[in-house]
Amino acid sequence: MNGLESVHIVEVGPRDGLQNEPRCLSVHQRVSLIQQLEATGLKEIECGSFVSNSKLPQMADTDKVMARLSLSQTCIYSALVPNQKAWSQAEGIEALQRIALFTSASELFCQHNIGCSLSESLKAFAVIIPLAKAKGLKIRVYLSCVWGCPYEGRVDINQSLALAATLLEMGCDQLSLADTIGIATQSQIKTVLTAFKSIDSEHIALHFHNSSGMAIANVMQCMDMGFVTFDSAIAGLGGCPFANALDSGNLATEDLVYLLHGLGIETGIDLKQLCSVGNSLCQLLHRSNASRLSLSLLNKSTLVI
Amino acid sequence: MNGLESVHIVEVGPRDGLQNEPRCLSVHQRVSLIQQLEATGLKEIECGSFVSNSKLPQMADTDKVMARLSLSQTCIYSALVPNQKAWSQAEGIEALQRIALFTSASELFCQHNIGCSLSESLKAFAVIIPLAKAKGLKIRVYLSCVWGCPYEGRVDINQSLALAATLLEMGCDQLSLADTIGIATQSQIKTVLTAFKSIDSEHIALHFHNSSGMAIANVMQCMDMGFVTFDSAIAGLGGCPFANALDSGNLATEDLVYLLHGLGIETGIDLKQLCSVGNSLCQLLHRSNASRLSLSLLNKSTLVI
């Protein structure tokens, strides 16, 4: 970790988090959440997903949510744009600076999760990416199941690497390598990221779930290898809707920031305020907070953050 | 972490864990737990505490528990021996290979927790240590609150270091530096352990609570600095009875072993069996398992450990 001066956090709570919650927040509540998150000092927030209201009611009216946001100079707003119809909704949104696409390193997960084959998902990207780039937008692609798939088990690293190279050639500027079912161990991370060394680390983000309590350890392993972009979700919300719901939880943003500050890495994020946003959100959602730090702070007054 | 070939785990569940549980286990159940833990491959187990039955009923009859154990060639059995009366019970126990004593880097925590001043606790040690060493026993001393105290806040590192040096001179062969209230961050760990570099790392064990979700990260930081002995408790039981009960749990042994195996460090421990012991114990105690790994395994079948 020595020598790392800054780490970039991609807050995925308003999308990856909320889409897995049984309770739906209103447009107003989601806008307010995003604004509160930005106010803590976060520099990138995934704000929603352009899907049909009936398919994923938690993400309904993402266009309305994003229309209420202004283009920010300090925070990148992104949203999931899963298909061309979604793009037609997204392209007019002034505040949108990055679109996120979703595919998988595993063929079977792609079929079960996205409802198309891997090659079909790439064909869809081949249409959307040039359109988004023509509008000056950045492109993130989620590559799920890089460390293992609930249907296929272990996933071939060379297959993931070839897919990653293809996506970068297609114009993607950030690949989020996801441990979708939270099984990555440190030595597997080392193996995969060593295989990915042909790709500049600035194009790689890491997306860990805390299923087995290793998300923080995984982040440390990645930082040790020079990777500096990590996804996390406020209050540890989220996970993968197609994996067992009890499996996950994303890494909690509060815990990630606490780790970074503990390592002496400045983030510019107000951690107390972040915890407060997470606690309020959990009250709104009638759920418990999955950030260990927040749970700890709720129970004592001596912890200095 | 590169280069570390082995890590020594001190399982403190049967003492530090059980003493904080509202339900008391019988002598038979505690003996069985210790034997099951040893059967997983653990090489050091703290088996109980020689205190009066009325003061800490969870630890009642520790003499009977230990009398049922045989001296092991593969596993060190230890027990907490807080005073001279305790020593009179402990000294005849054949299976006992190490006694553990308890003091604090913080004067106020010592007074509140042990009921005597720091210098009085050292005076008691000065009587017990020579007696135990004359019997060929090893001596562990818990130095609590090294990273902070619920009463004093930050604790002076030089004070901790001077105390540690005194204890080693007195014949202690292992100091367990405890983050009693679970507030240590990685940079604080670095600061303290750098200050402790005058002490051979073979004399140092680290005792982390997972209050803020950082126990695993803390272990990684310590390993990075060459420290290889860690305390943990099956199922993440325990914590500090005099700190807020909700603050802790110890680092779960299951999670620690999972980390080590994930790093490619062999422990000789059967992790599946260990998880099974933890789950059975939690059923006995009517409590939830605080090992993230076990929680994860309970909810899915795809995780390979």
How would you describe this protein?
Two copies of one chain form a homodimer. By secondary structure, chain A is α/β, with parallel strands linked by helices. Chain A has a single domain (8-298), classed as Alpha-Beta Barrel (TIM Barrel), CATH 3.20.20. The first copy, chain A, has helices at residues 13-17, 27-39, 62-67, 84-90, 107-113, 118-134, 157-169, 186-195, 215-224, 253-262, 271-285, 292-299; strands spanning 8-11, 44-49, 76-80, 96-104, 138-144, 174-179, 204-208, 229-232. An eight-stranded parallel beta sheet of chain A has the order 1-8-7-6-5-4-3-2. In chain A, helix 9 (215-224) links the parallel strand 7 (204-208) and strand 8 (229-232). In chain A, helix 8 packs parallel to helix 9 and helix 10 packs antiparallel against helix 11 (271-285). The A-B interface holds A 1, 148, 150, 153, 181-183, 185-188, 210-214, 216-217, 220, 243-244, 246-247, 252, 255, 258-259, 261-264, 291-293, 295-296, 299-300, 302-304 and B 1, 148, 150, 153, 181-183, 185-188, 210-214, 216-217, 220, 243-244, 246-247, 252, 255, 258-259, 261-264, 291-293, 296, 299-300, 302-304.
